[in-house]
Amino acid sequence: ASTTSTIMSLLLHMHNNKNSITVYHCEGTANLTEEEAAHEKAFYDALLPVIENQHESGKLFFKAKYDRMLFVLKAANDGERTRDLLFDHPQAMVWCKKYGVVSMGESDVIVLKEPGTDLDHLKRPIYFEKVFTDLKRHSLS
Q1: What are the C-alpha distances in Å from 105 to residues 82, 129, 130?
Q2: Residue 5 in 3-state DSSP?
Q3: Model-level pTM?
């Protein structure tokens, strides 16, 4: 890969919003060609205003929220009472009713709870910083 694509693969996506700068570390960008890196940048430039303007309970969220959800779901699975998690995580009950955690290899992932769905067909919510990579992977399969 060229130096340009290597630099682009880091993709520290910066967005200037109301005199503050937010940096998003997008995942899975290590081996992009220059064309793919440009496409990814355009994709996130178009998507970012949409996600930033949606309601907090929107369907697409940032990795920080995904990590909070994963922490709550794992704590609940480990026996912590959901109501004890509410002070720091007001949405804990909603998350525990709607989502579960499944171990996949060495990772724990969030899945939607859908009665009667086998493990091969579970739906996994994704977060902003991973959307491009997941869409690219599924378009190639």
Answers
A1: 26, 21, 18
A2: helix
A3: 0.73
How many CA atoms lie less than 13 Å away from 122 in the CB half-sphere? 18
Q: Which tens digit of pLDDT belongs to each residue from 73-126? A: 999 999 999 999 999 999 999 999 999 998 888 889 899 888 887 767 888 888
Helix (H) or strand (E) holding 127: none
What's 44-112 look like in SS3?
HHHHHHHHHHCCCCCCCECHHHHHHHHHHHHHHHCCCCHHHHCCCCCCHHHHHHHEEEEEECCEEEEEE
Pairing assessment for the beta strands 99-104 and 107-112 based on DSSP bridges: antiparallel
